[in-house]
Write a structure and sequence with these properties.
Layout: H1 3-6, E1 16-21, H2 27-33, H3 36-41, E2 47-50, H4 57-65, E3 71-74, H5 77-85, E4 90-96, E5 102-106, E6 122-127, H6 135-150, E7 159-164, H7 183-190, E8 196-199, H8 200-210, E9 213-217, E10 234-239, H9 240-245, H10 247-264, H11 268-279, H12 283-290, H13 304-319, H14 329-332, H15 336-348
Helix pairs in contact: 2-10, 5-13, 8-12, 10-15, 11-12
Length: 353
């Protein structure tokens, strides 16, 4: 008898679950790369499907809206927070924190040498055409506002310049996302703006390929809450009814992530390869964008630091007008499935693969 057969939480019959993850380092991304999520549910006949593989735009949009029943999401926190603020009844059942390079960039020939030099300058932020939250705009704005604060400046001391972007929900005839241009980098090179923000493999590529000069790496700051942005931390969210009525299913998913995080700590090269595939980048850019200790940081927790970081990101998004309404943050956290997941790992061990 499997856990899903024997657990007392059997109120809802579930025959399929959906999962989605962002093209960034996530524990879910590594687990799906090696097909461990699918295998975890095979003994119970539960079909696991990826939103990204669906041909239906409405299904794929659930990556942002979290409208699809019985679905898991791990990725950037802005869409997850936005969906909850828009009334979607989701629950945070775990959080990961993978620090990433967060650069404030200028041109190589710029006369901007210090953060104080940002006063009176033009800071570029993208403005995309989309039916969902403009998460690139929110993340770039947050990074630049953080930099201003570190330099003793206020948002009113600079000029924010909107850079028209693309519809990031767009797909080609085959249903695949096209390779989009980096409109803020183009504006910086053209001289339309003086400063931009970039992170992760994107920032690594801009420095390496375009010769842009880092003015600041926010990720180097010792205070983790200064480093809070869309990628730090990343919540694992599920539909609340699944977390409440079938915490055994959610626990099985989380247990797979817990085992994946343990595996990752001794498989650095394999982690880099998986993240490169997830992000559509190179091993070199992954190592630069996420650092040499990337493989050590895929733990799923609900620790005080992780939850407070997520709370602060919600506060920023609300204060800057990205959310339709505020919501009860503490009520958003549902801890029981992660506790059950830890019991599964204690019983079964950490072996995976």
């Amino acid at each position: 008898m499997t856990l899903l057969d024997s657990d007392i939480h059997t109120k809802a019959d579930v025959s399929e679950i959906w999962y989605t993850r962002c093209p960034v380092p996530t524990t879910s991304g590594i687990a799906q790369h090696y097909h461990w999520i699918h295998r975890a549910f095979e003994p119970d006949g539960i079909v696991v499907q990826s939103l990204q593989d669906s041909a239906d735009p409405a299904v794929r949009r659930s990556h942002f809206t979290h409208s699809l029943p019985a679905s898991f999401r791990e990725g950037g926190n802005i869409p997850a927070i936005w969906a909850r603020a828009n009334g979607q009844d989701t629950a945070v059942v775990g959080i990961s924190w993978v620090d990433e390079e967060q650069l404030v960039l200028v041109r190589a020939d710029s006369d901007i040498k210090t953060l104080a030099d940002l006063k009176g300058r033009r800071l570029g932020i993208p403005k995309h055409a989309a039916q969902v939250v403009d998460f690139p705009r929110a993340q770039d704005l947050h990074g630049l506002v953080t930099a201003l604060g570190l330099g003793g400046l206020a948002p009113g001391d600079v000029e924010f310049v909107d850079i028209p972007g693309h519809d990031f929900e767009q797909r080609d005839a085959d249903g695949k996302r096209p390779k989009f241009r980096n409109v803020t980098a183009e504006a910086l090179i053209a001289g339309t703006v003086d400063v931009i923000y970039a992170k992760g493999v994107s920032s690594a590529a801009l420095v390496k390929d375009l010769g842009l000069r880092p003015l600041l790496d926010i990720n180097a700051h010792p205070d983790p809450f200064v480093r809070v942005n869309t990628g730090t931390p990343r919540p694992v969210t599920v539909n609340r009814d699944l977390a409440v009525e079938r915490p055994d299913i959610v626990a099985r998913y989380l247990a797979t992530l817990l085992k994946t995080a343990v595996w990752a700590k001794s498989h650095s090269a394999e982690v880099v390869a998986a993240v490169a595939a997830e992000t559509g980048s190179t091993d070199e850019n992954v190592r630069r964008g996420y650092g040499p200790d990337l493989h050590l940081h895929f733990d799923i927790q609900l620790s005080p630091q992780y939850t407070e970081g997520l709370r602060q990101q919600k506060t920023f998004l609300h204060e800057w007008g990205f959310l339709k309404s505020d919501f009860d943050f503490d009520d958003w956290i549902v801890a029981e499935p992660l506790r059950l997941a830890a019991e599964i790992v204690a019983r079964e061990g950490t072996q995976i693969g």
